[in-house]
Design the sequence.
């Protein structure tokens, strides 16, 4: 078993998807967290692009949060059962990145009036549009009472469940109108390894 | 051989990486370019697209959305994703970095206020881009001195990705002037016989 070290800030943020993958796989790793006010520190030199997170595997370093998550998912057989399913999981995960990009317009706006308008637009138009497509994709996968890709848990299902935590930072009850996604999130969070991790993980604001 | 269709607009944009992969691999595909002025988009396609957006890759009638997911699928099918799981992850890492660069370009390219656009472009070319390319130059150098490839010892979609960034930045050497290893790599990729043949004959488009 390789030695894994995941280095990030002391938040869920862009590393939480990887932490969930480690949890489901039951693979031990060093969950190394750096407080914001300690950054940058000596770890910055190790970062391929000067940014966190990075993953260290037996001394070799990988950057970019999605590349890290996908590598782990692949190693732990959570990427889907064939090349096409892998493509579908990639597609789902990228859609959540697009949602996050749109959320950032609101998040980083400093003018209070513009910020409120962006928040409203994100919550009432942008987000429902994206979630509607995802609800549909889930439904097309055998009715939507199972997993979002194929017939077993993948890192795409973990991305859906994880999104509930960060979407709720800007939108109350984001999945209210999407019963199948709501059901999937519940099933994933109740998976024993996920439930155990959620119960014991550091409690951070985001 | 499966039947491949790549559906996008008439531009390089978010479909060009897939096109480069098809051509580098020598695999034929239907290069569908929709003309929104003729009602081809949204037309019948939008309702069929998994996320209502282009590009989509259609393989024997099944659809895959999201440009990087599609490109990675093709890279994997055509042995251009990286030879080991770790190499594949390193290639993914580079592709995500190129995407970060592209996102910055799209930000000022779509800015309507001319003064703000000029300011954003200035900051991008003088600060943001050199920082990104500096990291890339270092990482290339770490791969056996930097006279080969970004990942491993053969061409991957990461190499095609940086060649695509070269075009996105205007297709001139200027942005890479201070980064000789990366510029040499871009030239090597562009001179790959199948890539060079495609670059000679591809449609000239505004984006």
Sequence:
């Amino acid at each position: 078993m390789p030695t894994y070290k995941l280095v990030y800030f002391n938040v869920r943020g862009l590393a939480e998807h990887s932490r969930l993958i480690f949890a489901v796989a039951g693979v031990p790793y060093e969950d190394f967290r750096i407080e914001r006010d300690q950054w940058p520190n000596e770890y910055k030199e190790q970062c391929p692009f000067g940014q966190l997170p990075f993953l260290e595997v037996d001394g070799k370093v990988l950057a970019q949060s999605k590349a890290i998550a996908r590598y782990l998912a692949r190693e732990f057989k959570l990427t889907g059962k064939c090349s096409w399913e892998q493509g579908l999981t990639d597609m789902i995960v990228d859609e959540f990145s697009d949602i996050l990009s749109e959320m950032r317009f609101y998040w980083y706006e400093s003018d209070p009036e513009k910020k409120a308008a962006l928040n409203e637009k994100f919550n009432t138009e942008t987000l429902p549009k994206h979630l509607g497509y995802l609800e549909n994709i889930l439904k097309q996968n055998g009715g939507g009472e199972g997993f979002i890709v194929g017939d077993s848990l993948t890192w795409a299902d973990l991305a859906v469940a994880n999104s509930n935590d960060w979407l709720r930072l800007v939108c109350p009850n984001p999945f209210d109108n999407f019963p199948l996604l709501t059901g999937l999130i519940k099933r994933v969070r109740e998976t024993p390894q996920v439930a155990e991790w959620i119960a014991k993980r550091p409690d951070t604001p985001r | 051989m499966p039947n491949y269709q790549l559906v996008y607009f008439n531009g390089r944009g978010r479909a060009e990486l897939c096109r480069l992969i098809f051509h580098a691999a020598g695999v034929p595909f239907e290069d569908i370019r929709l003309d929104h002025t003729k009602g081809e988009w949204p037309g019948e396609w939008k309702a069929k697209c998994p996320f209502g957006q282009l590009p989509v890759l259609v393989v024997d009638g099944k659809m895959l959305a999201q440009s990087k997911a599609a490109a990675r699928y093709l890279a994997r099918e055509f042995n251009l994703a990286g030879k080991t799981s770790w190499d594949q992850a390193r290639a993914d890492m580079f592709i995500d970095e190129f995407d970060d660069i592209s996102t910055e370009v799209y930000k000022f390219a779509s800015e309507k206020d001319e003064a703000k656009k000029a300011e954003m472009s200035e900051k991008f070319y003088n600060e943001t881009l050199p920082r990104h390319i500096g990291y890339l130059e270092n990482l290339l150098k770490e791969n056996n001195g930097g006279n080969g490839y970004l990942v491993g010892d053969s061409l991957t979609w990461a190499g095609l990705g940086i060649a695509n960034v070269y075009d996105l930045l205007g297709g001139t050497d200027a942005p890479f002037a201070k980064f000789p290893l990366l510029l040499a790599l871009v030239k090597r990729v562009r001179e790959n016989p199948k890539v060079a043949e495609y670059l000679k004959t591809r449609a000239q488009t505004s984006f």
